[in-house]
Amino acid sequence: MATLTMIIRKCMVLVSLILGTMMVENLDSGEAFFIIPKKVTVQIINNLNPPQDLALHCKSKTDDVGQHTIKVGEDFSFRFRPKIFAVATLYFCNFRWPTNTSYHYFDIYVQKRDEFKCENEKLTMATLTMIIRKCMVLVSLILGTMMVENLDSGEASFIIPKKVTVQIINNLNPPQDLTLHCKSKTDDVGEHTIKVGEDFSFRFRPNIFAVVTLYFCNFRWPSDISYHYFDIYVQERDEFKCENQVCSWKISKGGACKYDPDMQAYTKCFPWNHHDVVAISSDNSTDYAN
């Protein structure tokens, strides 16, 4: 799941960059392309010789343009928007004229053949749009895989990450109240005080577009009223490494110890204002680095 989510993130960043480029490229025309393709105009000109009326009837699988008759030198046009998710748009026409009343069929627009090869369409736009298409197909396949993987739990993860719970347990020795205040750049969890053995928890949804979510806390207790700071959730460090989306921490005087699902114990310990994991001795005592 971690690998799939990272692929989605990179793909979405790529799409965002491409869309930004496409928007800038189209500023002169006063139109931002974004992800919706521009409408295409198909123009049909009567060039019969000897001169005679041309009857035509064009349609696609879902759109009937209707029957029309045009004189020599005249034209008939219709517009539509090609598909973005697959290169599958097709319009076909039948033609006939007085000296030959049988129907003559022709595929007047084949997206794979004609897209970006008509006047006023940019090659750079074609390349960018094809990249977007491939990226969106990849995302669709990944999302489908993620949905299947989550059927057992009755929940489809899709592209929105699950909420994470951060649990903070007072493990001070000697026993005393622990006062904490946690926040992120945009979310202030507030100040709370918990007794030894008690815990405080808060929930949030990590950033999907980039691995940048960060929550930090300051801690203090009666025997040491100075503030001790610690990054309680670092997305790059903690994502996909907490059991059932719960990142549980025990706070001691020397720092914070995180619950390790593999060890079934709080063995991943970090000192204040430092992110190096501290080794745990064989007797499970914690050795915090200075």
Automatic annotation (TrEMBL):
Annotated InterPro entries: Self-incomp_S1
Keywords, alphabetical: Secreted, Self-incompatibility, Signal
Keyword check for Disulfide bond: no
Signal sequence coordinates: 1-32
CC per GO annotation: extracellular region
Location within or outside the cell: Secreted
One Pfam match: Self-incomp_S1
Keyword Acetylation: no
Source species, domain of life: Eukaryota
GO BP: any one term: rejection of self pollen
Family label: Belongs to the plant self-incompatibility (S1) protein family.
PANTHER family recorded: PTHR31232, S-PROTEIN HOMOLOG 29-RELATED
Entry protein name: S-protein homolog
